Amino acid sequence: MRAIIIGAGRGSRLMPTTADTPKCFAEVKGKRILDWTLEAFRENGIEDICFIGGYRIECVKEAYPELTFRHNQDWENNNILLSLMHAEDLMNEPFICCYSDILFSSNVVRDLL
User: Does CATH number 3.90.550.10 belong to domain 2-112?
Assistant: First the structure.
């Protein structure tokens, strides 16, 4: 099982928090939103994780080098589904797709599996 996380947008509604980092770096209870997501997947044995980024993708690459990355360079001019298609080559087996700015627990992933 693989996870694909879409996080290409700027998150302008979270400004100034997202002025220099992607919105998945915003913290909830002292931990980045992306860390909550990765923890939920890993607690359920999902280690094959792709992050589709756009805005400030270099921040995510630096902080999480173990992830697979796809870059939507035209993220400002297209939508979430077009971002997802940047990982089309990884959709040849079952996968879970989520947004990078949604909080969920490992129980949600467990129930999906």
Answer: yes
